[in-house]
Design brief:
The complex is a heterodimer of chains A (406) and B (249). With 406 residues, chain A is α/β, with parallel strands linked by helices. Helix content of chain A is 22%, strand content 41%. Chain A has a 10-stranded mixed sheet, with helices on one face. In chain A, strands 3, 4, 6, 7, 9, 11, 13, 15, 17 and 19 form a 10-stranded mixed sheet that branches. In chain A, strand 1 and strand 2 form a beta hairpin. In chain A, helix 8 crosses helix 9. The longest helix of chain A has 17 residues. Chain B has 249 residues and is of the alpha/beta class. Chain B is globular, with a radius of gyration of 18 Å. The chains are: A alpha/beta (406), B alpha/beta (249). Chains A and B meet through helix 8 and helix 9 of A and helix 2, strand 7 and helix 3 of B.
Amino acid sequence: MSVLAEKLVTETAAKAHSGADDHQSIHDWGRQRLMQHGFPDLKTEEWKYTPLRVLEKREFQDQPGTATTLPSWPVEGVVLHFDHGILSIDPATLPEGVKLTPTPSDALNKKDYDQIYGQREGAFAWLNLAQFQQAWHLEITGEQTVIIATTTSGAFEAQVHPRMVIDIASNASLNLIEYQRDLGQGLINGTCEINVAEGAKVEHLICRQNTESVWIQRTDVDVAKDADYRVVAFDQGGRLTRHDLKVHVKGSGANGEIDGLVLLNGRQHVDWHTEIAHCVGQTNSREAFRFLADGSSVGVLNGRIHIHADSDDSHSDLNTANLLLSDDARINIKPELEIYSEEVTASHGATIGQLDDRSLFYMQSRGLSEAESLALLKYGFAAEPMMQIQTPEIRDWVLGQLKEVL
Amino acid sequence: MLKIKDLHVSVDDQEILKGLSLEVGEGELHAVMGPNGSGKSTLGYTLAGREDYEVTSGSIEFEGEDMVEMEPNERAAAGVFLAFQYPVEIPGVNNAYFLRAALNAQRKARGEEEVDGVNFLKMVRASLTELEMDESLLKRAVNEGFSGGEKKRNEIVQMAVLQPKLAILDETDSGLDIDALKLVADGINRLRDGKRSFVVITHYQRLLDYLTPDKVHVLSDGRIVESGGPELAHRLEAEGYGHLERASA
């Protein structure tokens, strides 16, 4: 058994506490696959820029953290607060149109996880399946705003494996904010499936700012006919962050969009693996991602557009522009286009550069100090992906945070 | 106002200015003319404090203060403004936000009260109207997607809002059609109040038809080789710079 498997594959919390495991069979399945495939290393193509040494060195302690507080939100909505992995409200009190229930084992057992997670590259999704404590099912009808806040305190040194499926009903509309603040030194390893039914609309914000934690997340999104899914990520990193975001555009007239901004400093390491798959024709997608890397941080973006066979009239564009702010920072960018249909348009562009000295001088010559000029230049570069946030209050909230940190 | 004595400036270890001396009094407008590569833009950048333009000897005094060691923003706050030959595009930075931030940074450095959004807009709108620029330019990123003429006019708008004591205009006339040239010249003339001084760097005499300089200087191979009144500009226009190059050869 590998070092990671020894550390991470343990008795589930439920079994340790009550002696029973309601999800025994699915947990066993996950554990068996994880042992079979193993954890990735630098020879695993999908993980070649992201070593797991930090995780291997980490000692996990199952001790309770202190309760965390949440900020004031820019919009009214249902707040699902997972404090150290534990839901802090009673799901029965949620308003009409927002239904949160535990997923029964038989529903979980029906999925073809081998096809979804693959092998070694999906080790952490298998780990989640082996270790999750509760699999939540969130059902949305009508027009809703939901904030899923996942927070930990500085004392947190445990591992938590959040698991959720979100179903957005046909023609429903969801404004979803995932707010993630992990101040501890443990592991959060989440998986989330989002199913956007026909004609539904989802505006999704991922707002993450961690410190020393390891945060690994997988988000699988299915977008049905005439549905619209747009996600904007504002990621301020952590010690190690890996996010696999897969958007499957599955019905004609569907649209999928990914915008992202990653701000890195110190010795942070953030790896985004994104995929937009056009499974049918008459579909659109676009992706724009920006990294600003300072200190000795490392940023990784693997952006993939996959247009399946018989998906004519698919249109996609992937663009990434990145700034290295120090000599020791590194950014690894890999755009991939995989196209099996003839009548499509797909393009990609990638740049990595440094702040322009001429711009800096121009701003200073108008009276701004070097620090003010740098901050404004960085803000100008960083704000662009955030302008894709459709709700003005949420956009201003994020831009306010951005101004504060630059 | 400005006293430059025996100024030597190197860029990447290559000496560009080789003993330039120039004095500009309060309220005066001096034109600096000269052929390509004579050091005109180097003079502008050096006065504004560009980092890689190294003053190896000589002095620059602005209102009696040594300017050589001052940062570019300190020079701006002291009242020095450079209108760039090639104004820089700054994607993502709103034009109005930038200009107000610059104005207030200068005011703060001088111990003055900051200008609020309403008063700032009044100031900038007046300048935009005078320069026949669309107000929508304020909402766009600094110089991004501006035409060549719009960029140059935007420099004059910035100058009008920032109200410097000394404005250095580096080939502000290049790339302008005759109508835009008049607008820019009018913008400069409106700011001539008997106290504010100007150094107008140009290749051609045509801008000087509208500005009436107090003095005209000819820069060649890093030095001022000839100075005179407005008639010197006319002579250069007729004769060109060839005789200077022959003389220096």
